[in-house]
Amino acid sequence: MRTEHSFLRKDETFECASNGVEPFSQCLSRGELQLVRDQAKILQINVGLLCNQKCRHCHLDAGPGRKEVMSLETMGAVVAFVRRCKFEIADITGGAPELNPHITELIQRLMPLVPQIMLRSNLTAFHDSKGESLMEFCKKNRVGIVASFPSLDLTQLESQRGEGTFEESITVLRRLNALGYGQEDSGLELNLVSNPTGAFLPPRQGQAEKRFRTELKRRWDIVFNHLFTFANAPLGRFRSWLKRSGNYDAYIKKLASHFNPQAVEGLMCRTLVSVSWDGYLYDCDFNLADGLPMDGRKIHVSEMGAPPKEGVPIALSDHCYACAAGAGFT
Ligand code: SF4
């Protein structure tokens, strides 16, 4: 268990000590829990921090000005890694992965190697002619879509994602439905992810899914497959907002006070490998955002001959409380 490593992270350890919250690693060891790797099944590919939006909760500080975009060369190394390691799912994320100029080439090269490919979308990045042809391309290649749609309330959603994003998101969801996404028996998966628009925990996933399903159908005749809720990780732009608004300590305390030991077993990092836009490996996108490398050292995907071994400890930090709060983020 990497307790020493996370204790060495002066900034978080100091902060936790200052707001009376014990470091996450200590919380685990006190409960005789370990967070170690299981068989790697999902490769999460972060193709860049470039985004058309500048969301307040973004743990990666992604935005229109970011230059970090995965190159064709790095994509080649990622594809070679997949060929060596046999993942079940390739989960393509960003920033807005739709804006990576090589996105269709990456998907085409992954198709013969991975049974399931998912593309994470903020929806508005699909809201132009280029986006339209990418939606058609995804349909043709049966790429699943995981779309961020945090709230059914226009003001709430736009307070987090920016002006005009609500209507654009609704328009794109309807377009995806028209293409078959989210429709029963179409085989074109459309899942939604919802996160709180402030420093509070998400509602229970089952209840939220029911409400979103009823309201999206009733008000806009929109359908989807599943809805996943998650708590905002205190990283990146969200962390800056928490600090500026004086909510940081209270939010960390809230996450820690809702720590759910049962959630640890199913945490996503146990079966997921995250690769950054420049090809380095992390246990998850949050650790990527925090610069906390897998196994305590920077490993480039081209150096990795096989998936990380089962039983290897996962790099921990106090933002992990966001994943293990309430029902947990699995
Ligand atoms: S942030 Fe979450 S997913 Fe990442 S290592 Fe911590 S618990 Fe695992």
What is the total domain count? Answer: 1
The radius of gyration computed from the alpha-carbon positions, rounded to a whole number of angstroms, is 19 Å
Task: Give the strand order, joined by hyphens, for the main sheet.
Answer: 6-5-4-3-2-1-7-8
The run of helices and strands is HHHEHEHEHEHHEHEHHHEEH
Mean pLDDT: 93
Strand coverage percent: 5-15%
CATH class, named: Alpha Beta
According to DSSP, the number of beta strands is 8
Secondary-structure content class: alpha/beta
Say which molecules are bound, naming each kind only once.
Answer: iron/sulfur cluster
CATH topology: TIM Barrel
Low-confidence stretches: 1-17
Tell me what the structure shows.
By secondary structure, the chain is α/β, with parallel strands linked by helices. The chain has one domain (about 35-325): TIM Barrel. It contains 13 helices and eight strands. The protein has helices at about 5-10, 10-20, 25-30, 70-85, 105-110, 130-140, 155-160, 165-180, 205-220, 235-245, 250-255, 260-265, 285-290, and strands at about 40-45, 90-95, 115-120, 145-150, 190-195, 225-230, 270-275, 280. α9 links the parallel β5 and β6 (about 225-230). The model is unreliable at about 1-15 (pLDDT under 50). Iron/sulfur cluster binds near residues 269, 283, 284 and 314.
